[in-house]
Design brief:
By secondary structure, the chain is of the alpha+beta class. The chain contains 10 helices and 14 strands. The chain folds into 3 domains: 135 residues, FAD/NAD(P)-binding domain, CATH 3.50.50; 88 residues, D-Amino Acid Oxidase, Chain A, domain 2, CATH 3.30.9.100; 68 residues, no CATH class. Helix 3 crosses helix 4, helix 8 packs antiparallel against helix 9 and helix 9 crosses helix 10. The radius of gyration is 23 Å and the shape is globular. Bound molecules: flavin-adenine dinucleotide. The site of flavin-adenine dinucleotide has 21 residues, from helix 6.
Protein backbone atom coordinates (compact mmCIF):
# COMPACT_ATOMS: atom_id res chain seq x y z
CA UNK A 1 0.00 0.00 0.00
CA UNK A 2 1.24 3.50 -0.80
CA UNK A 3 0.27 6.52 1.24
CA UNK A 4 -0.34 9.77 -0.60
CA UNK A 5 -0.50 13.00 1.37
CA UNK A 6 -2.42 15.36 -0.88
CA UNK A 7 -5.99 16.53 -1.28
CA UNK A 8 -7.46 14.45 -4.06
CA UNK A 9 -9.56 16.21 -6.66
CA UNK A 10 -12.01 14.60 -8.99
CA UNK A 11 -13.52 15.52 -12.33
CA UNK A 12 -16.11 13.98 -14.62
CA UNK A 13 -14.50 11.31 -16.76
CA UNK A 14 -14.78 11.62 -20.52
CA UNK A 15 -18.17 10.23 -21.56
CA UNK A 16 -17.97 6.59 -22.61
CA UNK A 17 -20.39 3.68 -22.59
CA UNK A 18 -18.14 1.40 -20.53
CA UNK A 19 -15.78 3.78 -18.75
CA UNK A 20 -15.88 5.27 -15.27
CA UNK A 21 -17.97 8.28 -14.35
CA UNK A 22 -15.28 10.00 -12.29
CA UNK A 23 -11.53 10.46 -12.67
CA UNK A 24 -8.72 11.97 -10.65
CA UNK A 25 -7.59 15.34 -12.05
CA UNK A 26 -4.06 15.38 -13.56
CA UNK A 27 -2.52 17.06 -10.47
CA UNK A 28 -3.91 14.33 -8.23
CA UNK A 29 -2.59 11.68 -10.61
CA UNK A 30 0.81 13.35 -10.46
CA UNK A 31 0.69 13.29 -6.64
CA UNK A 32 0.23 9.51 -6.78
CA UNK A 33 3.12 8.27 -8.97
CA UNK A 34 2.54 4.66 -7.94
CA UNK A 35 -0.58 4.72 -10.14
CA UNK A 36 1.85 4.98 -13.09
CA UNK A 37 -0.57 7.23 -14.96
CA UNK A 38 -3.42 4.72 -14.75
CA UNK A 39 -6.68 5.86 -13.15
CA UNK A 40 -7.71 3.78 -10.10
CA UNK A 41 -10.17 0.91 -10.64
CA UNK A 42 -12.41 2.30 -7.94
CA UNK A 43 -12.60 5.76 -6.41
CA UNK A 44 -13.93 5.68 -2.85
CA UNK A 45 -15.18 9.11 -1.88
CA UNK A 46 -14.69 9.46 1.88
CA UNK A 47 -14.42 13.25 1.85
CA UNK A 48 -17.06 13.71 4.55
CA UNK A 49 -19.24 16.77 4.38
CA UNK A 50 -17.18 18.12 1.47
CA UNK A 51 -19.14 15.50 -0.58
CA UNK A 52 -16.71 15.76 -3.44
CA UNK A 53 -18.33 13.21 -5.79
CA UNK A 54 -21.81 14.71 -5.36
CA UNK A 55 -20.49 18.18 -6.16
CA UNK A 56 -18.55 17.11 -9.24
CA UNK A 57 -21.45 15.07 -10.63
CA UNK A 58 -24.18 17.53 -9.54
CA UNK A 59 -25.99 14.81 -7.64
CA UNK A 60 -28.93 16.30 -5.77
CA UNK A 61 -29.58 15.53 -2.12
CA UNK A 62 -32.62 15.05 0.05
CA UNK A 63 -32.42 17.50 2.92
CA UNK A 64 -34.06 17.02 6.30
CA UNK A 65 -36.49 19.48 7.82
CA UNK A 66 -34.12 21.16 10.30
CA UNK A 67 -31.79 24.01 9.49
CA UNK A 68 -29.81 24.03 12.71
CA UNK A 69 -26.35 25.21 13.57
CA UNK A 70 -24.12 23.54 16.16
CA UNK A 71 -21.36 25.28 18.15
CA UNK A 72 -19.12 23.13 20.30
CA UNK A 73 -15.77 23.00 22.11
CA UNK A 74 -13.82 21.00 24.68
CA UNK A 75 -13.49 22.11 28.29
CA UNK A 76 -11.20 21.13 31.16
CA UNK A 77 -11.86 21.52 34.87
CA UNK A 78 -15.57 20.76 34.57
CA UNK A 79 -17.79 19.38 37.30
CA UNK A 80 -19.27 15.93 36.68
CA UNK A 81 -21.69 14.31 39.10
CA UNK A 82 -23.04 11.77 36.62
CA UNK A 83 -21.68 8.35 35.59
CA UNK A 84 -18.19 8.56 34.03
CA UNK A 85 -18.52 8.41 30.26
CA UNK A 86 -22.27 9.02 30.32
CA UNK A 87 -23.40 11.23 27.43
CA UNK A 88 -25.99 13.78 28.54
CA UNK A 89 -28.25 15.74 26.25
CA UNK A 90 -30.78 18.33 27.41
CA UNK A 91 -33.59 20.26 25.83
CA UNK A 92 -33.16 24.01 25.89
CA UNK A 93 -35.69 26.83 25.35
CA UNK A 94 -34.45 26.75 21.77
CA UNK A 95 -32.69 23.63 20.52
CA UNK A 96 -30.70 21.28 22.72
CA UNK A 97 -27.26 20.83 24.25
CA UNK A 98 -24.86 17.96 24.79
CA UNK A 99 -22.16 17.13 27.32
CA UNK A 100 -19.86 14.25 26.35
CA UNK A 101 -17.10 13.36 28.85
CA UNK A 102 -13.83 12.42 27.09
CA UNK A 103 -11.38 11.46 29.89
CA UNK A 104 -9.91 14.78 31.06
CA UNK A 105 -12.09 16.86 28.77
CA UNK A 106 -15.75 17.51 28.26
CA UNK A 107 -17.25 18.13 24.81
CA UNK A 108 -19.99 20.72 25.18
CA UNK A 109 -22.23 21.68 22.29
CA UNK A 110 -25.40 23.55 21.51
CA UNK A 111 -27.66 22.83 18.54
CA UNK A 112 -30.32 25.36 17.59
CA UNK A 113 -31.99 27.20 14.73
CA UNK A 114 -29.99 29.90 12.96
CA UNK A 115 -32.23 32.73 14.23
CA UNK A 116 -32.10 31.54 17.83
CA UNK A 117 -28.31 31.19 17.54
CA UNK A 118 -28.02 34.78 16.29
CA UNK A 119 -29.82 35.98 19.40
CA UNK A 120 -27.11 34.47 21.60
CA UNK A 121 -24.34 36.55 20.02
CA UNK A 122 -22.45 37.20 16.83
CA UNK A 123 -19.50 34.82 17.04
CA UNK A 124 -19.58 31.10 17.85
CA UNK A 125 -17.56 31.85 21.03
CA UNK A 126 -20.11 34.42 22.22
CA UNK A 127 -22.99 32.07 21.46
CA UNK A 128 -21.55 29.05 23.28
CA UNK A 129 -20.53 31.18 26.24
CA UNK A 130 -23.98 32.86 26.43
CA UNK A 131 -25.70 29.47 26.19
CA UNK A 132 -23.64 28.18 29.12
CA UNK A 133 -24.26 31.29 31.22
CA UNK A 134 -28.01 31.30 30.60
CA UNK A 135 -28.54 27.60 31.23
CA UNK A 136 -28.45 26.66 34.95
CA UNK A 137 -27.56 23.03 34.19
CA UNK A 138 -24.76 23.83 31.72
CA UNK A 139 -23.46 26.49 34.12
CA UNK A 140 -23.31 23.99 36.95
CA UNK A 141 -21.22 21.64 34.77
CA UNK A 142 -18.91 24.04 32.89
CA UNK A 143 -19.46 27.40 34.59
CA UNK A 144 -15.94 27.47 36.04
CA UNK A 145 -14.29 25.20 33.43
CA UNK A 146 -11.67 26.38 30.93
CA UNK A 147 -12.29 26.13 27.19
CA UNK A 148 -9.26 24.38 25.67
CA UNK A 149 -10.23 24.26 21.97
CA UNK A 150 -11.59 26.82 19.54
CA UNK A 151 -15.38 26.75 19.17
CA UNK A 152 -16.25 24.66 16.10
CA UNK A 153 -19.36 25.32 14.03
CA UNK A 154 -21.32 22.93 11.83
CA UNK A 155 -24.45 23.76 9.90
CA UNK A 156 -26.66 22.19 7.26
CA UNK A 157 -26.52 18.59 8.25
CA UNK A 158 -29.51 16.27 7.61
CA UNK A 159 -28.65 15.59 3.99
CA UNK A 160 -28.65 12.35 1.96
CA UNK A 161 -27.30 12.16 -1.61
CA UNK A 162 -29.73 10.71 -4.14
CA UNK A 163 -26.96 8.49 -5.46
CA UNK A 164 -23.76 7.18 -3.88
CA UNK A 165 -22.65 4.66 -6.50
CA UNK A 166 -21.73 4.96 -10.15
CA UNK A 167 -19.39 3.33 -12.66
CA UNK A 168 -15.97 3.23 -10.97
CA UNK A 169 -16.86 5.13 -7.80
CA UNK A 170 -18.67 4.88 -4.48
CA UNK A 171 -19.30 7.34 -1.65
CA UNK A 172 -19.12 6.29 2.00
CA UNK A 173 -19.68 8.00 5.36
CA UNK A 174 -20.80 11.60 5.39
CA UNK A 175 -19.92 11.85 1.67
CA UNK A 176 -23.06 9.74 1.12
CA UNK A 177 -25.23 11.25 3.82
CA UNK A 178 -25.32 12.68 7.31
CA UNK A 179 -28.25 12.65 9.60
CA UNK A 180 -27.99 14.84 12.68
CA UNK A 181 -25.82 15.01 15.79
CA UNK A 182 -28.87 13.95 17.82
CA UNK A 183 -28.26 10.31 18.95
CA UNK A 184 -24.68 10.53 17.58
CA UNK A 185 -25.01 8.00 14.76
CA UNK A 186 -22.39 9.59 12.44
CA UNK A 187 -19.28 7.54 13.18
CA UNK A 188 -21.28 4.32 13.45
CA UNK A 189 -22.96 4.95 10.08
CA UNK A 190 -19.67 5.88 8.44
CA UNK A 191 -17.92 2.74 9.64
CA UNK A 192 -20.92 0.65 8.68
CA UNK A 193 -20.94 2.09 5.16
CA UNK A 194 -17.26 1.22 4.72
CA UNK A 195 -17.98 -2.29 5.99
CA UNK A 196 -20.86 -2.75 3.52
CA UNK A 197 -18.66 -1.63 0.63
CA UNK A 198 -15.88 -4.00 1.71
CA UNK A 199 -18.39 -6.87 2.00
CA UNK A 200 -19.77 -6.15 -1.47
CA UNK A 201 -16.30 -6.15 -3.04
CA UNK A 202 -14.81 -9.14 -1.22
CA UNK A 203 -16.30 -11.77 -3.60
CA UNK A 204 -14.74 -9.95 -6.57
CA UNK A 205 -11.33 -10.05 -4.93
CA UNK A 206 -11.72 -13.70 -3.99
CA UNK A 207 -12.73 -14.69 -7.52
CA UNK A 208 -10.27 -12.23 -9.07
CA UNK A 209 -13.11 -10.97 -11.28
CA UNK A 210 -12.22 -8.17 -13.63
CA UNK A 211 -13.09 -4.86 -11.95
CA UNK A 212 -14.70 -2.99 -14.82
CA UNK A 213 -16.47 0.26 -13.78
CA UNK A 214 -19.87 -1.19 -14.70
CA UNK A 215 -19.27 -4.42 -12.81
CA UNK A 216 -18.12 -2.56 -9.71
CA UNK A 217 -21.22 -0.38 -9.87
CA UNK A 218 -23.43 -3.44 -10.23
CA UNK A 219 -21.85 -5.05 -7.17
CA UNK A 220 -22.17 -1.87 -5.12
CA UNK A 221 -25.73 -1.00 -6.07
CA UNK A 222 -27.25 -2.97 -3.19
CA UNK A 223 -24.93 -1.11 -0.80
CA UNK A 224 -26.31 2.19 -2.11
CA UNK A 225 -29.87 1.02 -1.57
CA UNK A 226 -29.28 -0.53 1.87
CA UNK A 227 -27.24 2.31 3.29
CA UNK A 228 -29.58 4.93 1.81
CA UNK A 229 -32.44 3.16 3.61
CA UNK A 230 -30.45 3.17 6.87
CA UNK A 231 -29.79 6.90 6.58
CA UNK A 232 -33.48 7.54 5.88
CA UNK A 233 -34.51 5.41 8.86
CA UNK A 234 -32.18 7.41 11.12
CA UNK A 235 -33.58 10.66 9.80
CA UNK A 236 -37.12 9.45 10.54
CA UNK A 237 -36.11 8.34 14.05
CA UNK A 238 -34.39 11.63 14.80
CA UNK A 239 -37.50 13.47 13.67
CA UNK A 240 -39.52 11.59 16.28
CA UNK A 241 -37.11 12.82 18.95
CA UNK A 242 -37.37 16.41 17.70
CA UNK A 243 -41.16 16.43 17.47
CA UNK A 244 -41.45 15.07 21.01
CA UNK A 245 -43.04 11.69 20.23
CA UNK A 246 -40.26 9.52 21.66
CA UNK A 247 -39.87 11.58 24.84
CA UNK A 248 -43.66 11.69 25.29
CA UNK A 249 -43.74 7.91 24.89
CA UNK A 250 -41.05 7.49 27.54
CA UNK A 251 -43.00 9.78 29.89
CA UNK A 252 -46.19 7.79 29.21
CA UNK A 253 -44.27 4.57 29.92
CA UNK A 254 -43.00 5.89 33.25
CA UNK A 255 -46.53 7.01 34.24
CA UNK A 256 -47.89 3.61 33.18
CA UNK A 257 -45.39 1.80 35.40
CA UNK A 258 -45.88 4.21 38.31
CA UNK A 259 -49.48 3.02 38.65
CA UNK A 260 -48.31 -0.38 39.83
CA UNK A 261 -46.48 -3.15 38.05
CA UNK A 262 -47.24 -6.77 37.23
CA UNK A 263 -45.74 -9.47 35.02
CA UNK A 264 -47.72 -8.45 31.92
CA UNK A 265 -47.08 -4.75 32.41
CA UNK A 266 -43.38 -5.38 32.99
CA UNK A 267 -43.14 -7.51 29.87
CA UNK A 268 -44.91 -4.87 27.75
CA UNK A 269 -42.66 -2.13 29.09
CA UNK A 270 -39.52 -4.22 28.52
CA UNK A 271 -40.64 -5.02 24.98
CA UNK A 272 -41.19 -1.34 24.13
CA UNK A 273 -37.92 -0.23 25.75
CA UNK A 274 -36.04 -2.94 23.89
CA UNK A 275 -37.34 -1.80 20.52
CA UNK A 276 -36.65 1.88 21.23
CA UNK A 277 -33.14 0.83 22.30
CA UNK A 278 -32.67 -1.27 19.16
CA UNK A 279 -33.47 1.73 17.03
CA UNK A 280 -31.56 4.41 18.89
CA UNK A 281 -28.42 2.24 19.20
CA UNK A 282 -28.27 1.44 15.49
CA UNK A 283 -28.67 -2.30 16.12
CA UNK A 284 -32.18 -2.25 14.64
CA UNK A 285 -32.81 1.22 13.23
CA UNK A 286 -34.08 -0.20 9.94
CA UNK A 287 -36.09 -3.08 11.48
CA UNK A 288 -39.60 -2.90 10.15
CA UNK A 289 -41.25 -4.17 13.30
CA UNK A 290 -39.35 -1.78 15.61
CA UNK A 291 -40.12 1.15 13.34
CA UNK A 292 -43.80 0.24 13.02
CA UNK A 293 -44.10 -0.24 16.79
CA UNK A 294 -42.62 3.18 17.48
CA UNK A 295 -44.86 4.80 14.88
CA UNK A 296 -47.92 3.06 16.30
CA UNK A 297 -47.14 3.94 19.91
CA UNK A 298 -46.28 7.52 18.95
CA UNK A 299 -49.82 7.80 17.63
CA UNK A 300 -51.90 5.61 19.94
CA UNK A 301 -49.79 4.83 23.02
CA UNK A 302 -49.14 8.24 24.55
CA UNK A 303 -51.90 7.96 27.18
CA UNK A 304 -52.70 11.67 27.04
CA UNK A 305 -49.09 12.90 27.12
CA UNK A 306 -48.71 15.70 24.56
CA UNK A 307 -45.68 15.33 22.23
CA UNK A 308 -45.68 19.12 21.72
CA UNK A 309 -44.71 19.53 25.40
CA UNK A 310 -41.55 17.51 24.73
CA UNK A 311 -40.71 18.81 21.26
CA UNK A 312 -37.37 20.47 20.61
CA UNK A 313 -37.88 23.84 19.00
C1 LIG B 1 -22.29 19.02 15.36
C2 LIG B 1 -21.98 17.57 15.11
C3 LIG B 1 -21.73 16.72 16.17
C4 LIG B 1 -21.47 15.37 15.93
N1 LIG B 1 -21.30 14.53 17.01
C5 LIG B 1 -21.12 13.23 16.77
C6 LIG B 1 -21.02 12.31 17.85
O1 LIG B 1 -21.11 12.68 19.04
N2 LIG B 1 -20.84 10.99 17.54
C7 LIG B 1 -20.78 10.55 16.25
O2 LIG B 1 -20.65 9.34 16.02
N3 LIG B 1 -20.83 11.40 15.22
C8 LIG B 1 -21.01 12.72 15.44
N4 LIG B 1 -21.12 13.56 14.39
C9 LIG B 1 -20.99 13.04 13.02
C10 LIG B 1 -19.56 12.60 12.70
O3 LIG B 1 -18.65 13.64 12.99
C11 LIG B 1 -19.47 12.25 11.21
O4 LIG B 1 -20.61 11.51 10.81
C12 LIG B 1 -18.22 11.42 10.91
O5 LIG B 1 -17.07 12.14 11.28
C13 LIG B 1 -18.18 11.12 9.41
O6 LIG B 1 -16.98 10.44 9.10
P1 LIG B 1 -16.40 10.52 7.63
O7 LIG B 1 -15.13 9.74 7.67
O8 LIG B 1 -17.42 10.19 6.62
O9 LIG B 1 -16.08 12.08 7.40
P2 LIG B 1 -15.05 13.03 8.16
O10 LIG B 1 -14.85 12.60 9.57
O11 LIG B 1 -15.53 14.43 7.91
O12 LIG B 1 -13.69 12.77 7.39
C14 LIG B 1 -13.52 13.22 6.04
C15 LIG B 1 -12.03 13.49 5.86
O13 LIG B 1 -11.78 13.66 4.48
C16 LIG B 1 -10.88 14.75 4.33
N5 LIG B 1 -11.06 15.28 2.97
C17 LIG B 1 -12.05 16.08 2.50
N6 LIG B 1 -11.86 16.33 1.20
C18 LIG B 1 -10.73 15.67 0.84
C19 LIG B 1 -10.02 15.54 -0.39
N7 LIG B 1 -10.44 16.14 -1.51
N8 LIG B 1 -8.90 14.78 -0.43
C20 LIG B 1 -8.48 14.15 0.72
N9 LIG B 1 -9.10 14.24 1.91
C21 LIG B 1 -10.22 14.98 1.96
C22 LIG B 1 -11.29 15.73 5.41
O14 LIG B 1 -10.23 16.62 5.69
C23 LIG B 1 -11.57 14.75 6.57
O15 LIG B 1 -10.40 14.47 7.27
C24 LIG B 1 -21.40 14.90 14.61
C25 LIG B 1 -21.60 15.77 13.53
C26 LIG B 1 -21.94 17.08 13.77
C27 LIG B 1 -22.24 17.99 12.59
Amino acid sequence: MTRVVARARLQRALPSATGPELALVPESMAAAPHLEGRQPDLIVDATGRARHSSHVLDIPARVGPRKDVAHFAHFEGFRWDDEPGQVLIARRDAGWSWCIPLHERLSVGIVLGQDDAAQLGRSPEERLSAAVTKDPWLSSVVGSARRVTPVATYANYQLIAHRAVGPGWVAIGDAFGFVDPMLSPGVFLSLRSAELVADALTPMLARRTEASPARLAARLRSYGTAHGAALSAWLALVEQFYDGRVLALMRAGRDFMANGSGPVKNAVQRHIERHIGLQASGAGTTRRYSRALLQFLGRYGLRGVEPADYAIR
